[in-house]
Amino acid sequence: MTTSxxxxxxxxxxxxxxxxxxxxxxxxxxxxxxxPMYQNSLFTFPTHxxxxxxxxxxxxxxxxxxxxxxxxxxxxxxxxxLEGGESARCFASGMAAISASIxxxxxxxxxxxCVEYIYWPIRDFLENYLRRFGVETTFVHGENMAAIEAxxxxxxxxxxxxxxxxxxxxxxxxxxxxxxxxxxxxxxxxDNTWASPIYQxxxxxxxxxxxxxxxxxVGGHSDIIGGVIxxxxxxLDRIGKEEFWLLGGIMTPQVASLAMxxxxxxxxxxxxxxxxxxxxxxxxEGLPFVERVNHPGLxxxxxxxxxxxxxxxxxxxxxxxxxxxxxxxxxxxxGLDMFRIGLSWGGYESLVQVWRNTCEEDxxxxxxxxxxxxxxxxxxxxxxxxxxxxxxxxxxxxx
Length: 399
Ligand SMILES: Cc1ncc(COP(=O)(O)O)c(C=O)c1O
Hints:
38% of the residues lie in helices and 16% in strands. The protein has 15 helices and 14 strands.
């Protein structure tokens, strides 16, 4: 049998596009061109001796799909290779993966440092849910390394990162965070959904665990919910035995099959999405009433240099701030024809979201509009924006 799982040495020599486009031939699947979907809950054995052997080590055998399923395992293997990790486990959602990864790193009495303006259910999980179990969290502006250092307490066991944050698009210096965590004996986890495994590989910068919502770029078609944790074999074996096996928030084989289909075109889609996103962000930056475009790929972004150093490309989700009233901006967003109003991102379709909450930065209140630029012609998206600005009386001639 030569799946990518069983022949990782061969696959690590491949570039990312080949890794996702090419299956190793597995003779047990009759030459099927993709990994078939193993739609079964249990696996059976010829003898009790073989059955007991599997029972004694359920995560090393195909025994029960809550532990191992070949279709899900193939996806896990490919995601681990793409991120440069030794091992991966897929979950029912990004949040299932994220909460499992956090639970694997804390116990009652511990302290967590987490970046401000993180995806809000993660904040809720840390701030409210884990407080019930005696875990305390300090939220810090992650672009400020001194603030992260200052937040360290003797009982800090976890630093949770998201770089860039997916509403304010602020970065953390990942290597510096990893070094700090190693000095104090804490674990580092990063939500790497925005950059995808194509444009940022934090394990190579010393981060311990990478999590993704596969719902976004990896799925790529707005039709699945899934998540993954990637890291060392030692950490993932522990998560496998505890949060994965005991909490049971696993990914189903159907979802794994769809995620694998999404993965085939991930590098191609990311390249086009990056181009489209930068074109639209640059257009907005040139408008007289736009105050700031929060896109790390723009040279005007205060952390552009850091982004160039620790990422190899850019996602197409970004936000902007305009000198307009809340009513005006909502009217503009509602007037767009080519953007749908919605919560998620990472699919083929462009989305807009006017953030209801404000956030504070350097003593300034920010009112953000988040855009996800999809695979449509960016010139048409820009024309649509101009039309909607004109409807609220704004002229889009450049600054
Ligand atoms: C940055 C980020 N991380 C994690 C998640 C959670 O992923 P899921 O919805 O797959 O649970 C989301 C969802 O929107 C997200 O935007």
